[in-house]
Amino acid sequence: MNLLFSKRSIELLISILTSLVLAGCADSGNDVSQVETSSKSAVFGECGSTAPLQLPCGFPLPREEDNNRLSMAKVELGRFMFYDRNLSFNKTQSCADCHLQEKAFTDGLTVSVGSAGHPHSRNAMSMTNVVYNGTMNWANNQVVNLQQQALAVITNEAPIELGWSGHEVEMLARLSTPLAQDYSTAPPDYPTLFANAFPDEAEKITLFTVTKAFAAFGSIMISGDSDFDKEQRSEPNTMTDAAKRGRELFFSEQLECFHCHAGFNFSDSVDHDGIRFTQNSFHNNALYNIGGVGLYPSDNHGLREFTLRPEDEGKFRAPTLRNIALTAPYMHDGSIATLDEVIDHYARGGRVILPPDPNAGDGALNPNRSGLVNGFVISTNERLDLIAFFESLTDWKFICRNDLSDPFGNTQKHTLCP
Ligand code: HEC
Ligand code: HEC
Predict the structure, then answer these.
(1) Contact yes or no for 291/300 (Cβ under 8 A)
(2) Which domains does the chain have, with CATH numbers?
């Protein structure tokens, strides 16, 4: 069963990858056709349009996969599944248990814990603007869209996340025939939801359709209405003078932050409709230097785990900084507790860890350290300004949006939501 399942999921992955490559070939040399494709989005539209979901003003159209054009029916189905704990093999965990809306879809833990109780080696990432990611996860150049990400999460065995592997038939049956006893309220009518979401599929409830619906819901988690955004667009806002001074620091050549946390999503790894080449960048921001030879702890080598190249040791994607004030602790392994300590880290130009800690070493001397992480002098007031700037990136509309919230009522909204 296990083997059969793995083989099927590999086949699925290959077919998704193939369709992606083919889509890429069809588009190459023709930027315009990509723009036309997504202007037909049934879901997204520019701000001020009549689309079901309006993008924040100035945001680019998300790229929609050719095999998963968005519809509100897919989004609605994906929302139920995202919050449904019966979709982990032992009925204990949903996606939302690691991606809580009140924490900008993170879990507040140093590293996540899967449904079977195993620790993940990494910190849960915010799902803010994931549809625009060039690559998914902290340092994985192999998972490039939300369908692939959903497949990875449900089938992962090391660690087990939702634990579908080996339980595939049973998991799909839970969707075909939802049991009243599994729910505290009326069970979602999954057969009808799938039929509405996938009118053209002969078989409605499959691994393919499940991953597509998860992807559809993930792709509407778009955040671009923070005080910072409103200030940039000259709309009424409450951005403080301190936050505006912090913005100047962030975008200064002295601090260099904006080179990697770049552009509309504060990340230099982005993809969206209308660009032909996705920008996938990975950087070593000098967190570790074990043994003085640039090593990172054994369970987190960063991009090197996929490329096998020594120079990729400790390289990670620069994540978005949107909603960053709500997503502590920080970094791929949750090893920095506060934004103040993040500033210490960059001001020093790398973190030093003293013996006898097994991870001892001076990150500033890491041979792979990015040339943009050089250290700087920052006063106490400037530090407060920078933190005020981070706080101005919190998008309360996003954190409180009803259409992103738990339809079962198991998870609370942020206490500041109306
Ligand atoms: C056990 C906790 C856990 C569960 C359950 C979980 N995630 Fe995650 N998620 C994580 C962690 C940890 C990461 C970072 C993984 C890495 O870098 O290897 C992550 C990363 C992601 C990302 C990538 C974000 C980015 O910016 O690259 C997406 C998208 C995502 N998860 C969606 C989902 C969906 C959809 C589900 C349910 C099908 C789900 N997750 C279930 C913990 C979890
Ligand atoms: C060379 C590129 C680069 C520069 C310059 C840079 N960062 Fe980063 N940043 C990264 C990478 C890569 C990560 C993830 C590293 C990891 O997890 O190991 C990161 C992580 C972070 C995080 C944690 C994000 C999270 O979700 O946990 C914060 C906060 C942050 N950076 C703020 C800043 C600030 C402030 C500056 C300027 C002082 C800055 N960065 C400069 C690349 C960069």
Answers:
(1) no
(2) 227-396 (1.10.760.10)
How far is C-alpha 99 from the geometric centre of its chain's CA atoms? 9
Atom number, ligand 2, closest to the C-alpha of residue 314 = 18
Burial of 52 from C-beta contacts in 10 A (0-12 / 13-18 / 19+): middle
Q: Which of 32-36, 70-74, 133-137, 331-335 has the lowest mean pLDDT?
A: 32-36
HSE of 380 in the Cβ direction (CA atoms, 13 Å)?
A: 0
Residues ≥6 apart with Cβ < 8 Å to 185: 408, 409
Residues across the chain: 418
Question: Is the pTM above the cut of 0.90?
Answer: yes
Give the ligand at the shortest distance from the Cα of 95: 1
Please write the tens of the pLDDT for every residue from 252-272. Answer: 999 999 999 999 999 999 999
Measured CA to CA, the distance from residue 126 to residue 134 in angstroms comes to 15
**Rounded distance from Cα 126 to ligand 1 centre (Å):** 8
Cα of 226 vs its chain's centroid, Å: 18
Ligand number nearest to the C-alpha of 331: 2
Nearest CA to ligand 1 atom 42: 124
